[in-house]
Amino acid sequence: MSMNSPFYPVLLAGGSGTRFWPRSRRARAKQVLSLDGEQSMIQQTVQRLRPLARLEKFWIITNDLLSETLQEQLADIPTEHMLLEPAARNTAPAAGLAAFLLERISPDAILGMFPADHVVSDEDKFRDTVRKGIQLASQDSNIVVLGIPPTRIETGYGYVELGSQTAPGVHRVRRFTEKPNQVRAEEFIASRNFLWNSGIFLWKASTLAAAIREHLSETAPFLEQIAAAYGTSKFEAVFAELYPRCENISLDYAVLEPRATKGEHHSNIFCLPADFGWNDLGSWAALYDHQRGASPETNVVDAGGGYTLHADGNYVYAPGRFVALVGVKDLVVVQTDDALLITTRHQSQDVSKVVKHLKDTSREELL
Amino acid sequence: MSMNSPFYPVLLAGGSGTRFWPRSRRARAKQVLSLDGEQSMIQQTVQRLRPLARLEKFWIITNDLLSETLQEQLADIPTEHMLLEPAARNTAPAAGLAAFLLERISPDAILGMFPADHVVSDEDKFRDTVRKGIQLASQDSNIVVLGIPPTRIETGYGYVELGSQTAPGVHRVRRFTEKPNQVRAEEFIASRNFLWNSGIFLWKASTLAAAIREHLSETAPFLEQIAAAYGTSKFEAVFAELYPRCENISLDYAVLEPRATKGEHHSNIFCLPADFGWNDLGSWAALYDHQRGASPETNVVDAGGGYTLHADGNYVYAPGRFVALVGVKDLVVVQTDDALLITTRHQSQDVSKVVKHLKDTSREELL
Predict the structure, then answer these.
(1) Which residues of A touch B25 (CB under 8 A)?
(2) Cβ of B327 and A344 within 8 Å?
(3) CATH of the domain at A176
């Protein structure tokens, strides 16, 4: 891909994820943690996209709490491309703002929206798919979503229903669905016609901007005013005043689902199915699966050495410490300077209840 | 009891207990740990006996690794009363040395032998029993053992079989038994005639010295020579040369069991049964039971705050940290600056296998 490519990666990094407590905190959200290696999740995301775009073309939408850490971790990305949301908002206002900003640079700019906290094991295949998506998105007012072939029955993700095939590896999208219940999820998998919605979208800035104007008619003017103020001395004030007035809604719900109801031949939404070893690492249990991989050793111990006896299926994070596991199974034990989480892999989602308890009891130092 | 009492408490504090790893280490054995409160086990032991003897009458038998910590913890006990074994030896040589030393001070000195790592909840009852034992031991060549009424079938302790009653709360001892197997332990408990051997003995220095001369005829001369050198410039050299040549055997096995075979009317061994809330805290599980006591809260968490959700029966030690327990049962989790132990209450005895592994792999810093 030439360096004059119109491709602009926009990384959504505003989440305050609680699922990796006690490692994740308000100011140390999942995207800035090094969960599975040396680099943080967002550093890995940038690294993965780096061959497709110069660093000056990256944009990051995040929040004030994370900005300092992000500026350290992504020192080569222009700080003026790091937008700090004055209020937490779902994906539609964030993506919309990026669209209006890039539309002013070039209406034909291809905006790629990427969550900043996922892992990908086959980076070449990932980039091949994104390249294909950029090409498809540069035609007409196409919208492209990357779809992940499901590897298990999963009720925690949205799904994309495939329509007709238009080219090898390219399908029209028939429908976007919210997170299904167990029965529907089983039907989805059995049909082989539903893919996981990766949250990765590609479209022209002008296409997305038009979609926001159409589907979020009250919010769009606020975002346009913010984009117009960008680069001026008034920007911060305008951003702070108008962004909180934007509707707090996801891009899927606000734009893609209603758009798809126009019918697959009118909506111009395309899905590129691609199995590039995607994992959103949604819990300690998911991290265990990812880190264990195909290893015959069933304990994943991130520590300064260890010894196991009659112990299986445990995830332990205790940097620098010698960890001894005796007769325990399927536990998750995570230790930080100020906290210790002890749970099971099957209940590791409930860590959000711990965070809720900490909020309820105003333990700010642990949030 | 008058301050001119002939009572001399001798604390056996040489153990290198591994059962509280990772808290216990070679230089931080159980007796110097604060397991169930502010004071260490040996500080509690001294405190408990303090009303019965001036501090100048206490003697401590320990080893070089622990001496510094013990001198800090027991600053008021004369350092010349702290004997550092030049080689690890079982209880017979340690008790014998104390007997020969005290015999030189006064043959009628009453020597009380106390393990330094047990807990007692009813200290008044404990002292009443010891007072009674001192009185009994001061007559003739009586030997007194404190017996604990069993509260469970336990195969980890030696037992004392009671013979005829000679006064209210005083029995002759018929027999000392080694740790029984499960079937015998059940028989012992059912008979109501067997008590746990507390390891607490009282006798005149001359009585114990004579018993050592009789039953350990090869070892006794070494101990007498060491005692004779005490207070001279040669002491350290003599101690270092002769003590390692003493037989490595327990007092129970070397003296009490054979003595008891003379028959209860000739052996002059008496047992004072007393239920003073004794617990030898032999494992993390035992500490859990002790700390939990009669509390309806089933988790024992020694930490800087905590939150539990569907969690029962866990013991956690993580000083200063906020501990979250979610959906876990009967675990033992112990965290120190350099190590993290994760096991279950039922397998917490197996921590000795961790220590063995550390020895085998020369992880000296963790031992």
Answers:
(1) none
(2) yes
(3) 3.90.550.10
